[in-house]
Amino acid sequence: MKHRLKQLFILSVIASVGLLCLQIYWINEGWNSGKDILKRQVDYSFQQAIEKEWNKRKDTLSAYLEEFLSDTSFIGIGTKYNEKEKIWMITMYDPENPSDYSSWSSKTIQVGEKLLPGQKEQIIEKYISDNIRRNVLNDVIFFYTQRFGKVWTKKHAEMNIDTMLVSKLFSDELSKNNITTGFRIRYRDTTVQKEPAKEQFSAVRSTELPVNYLTLNDYDRKYKAVALVESPGFVLLKRMWLAILSSVVLLGLTLFCLFRMYRTIIRQKQLDELKNDFISNMTHELKTPIATVAAAVDGLQYYDALEDKQRTQRYLNTSRKELKKLDEMVSKVLSLSVAEDLNENLKKESFYLKEFLEELLSSFTVQASFSWQLEIESLLKIYGDREKLASVFQNIIENSIKYGRDNIVVHIKASSTGNRLLMEISDNGPGIDNDHLPYIFNKFYRNSFENAGIKGFGLGLYYVARIISAHGGRIEAINKNGLSFLIQLPIKD
Question: Has residue 1 got a pLDDT over 60?
Answer without folding.
Answer: no
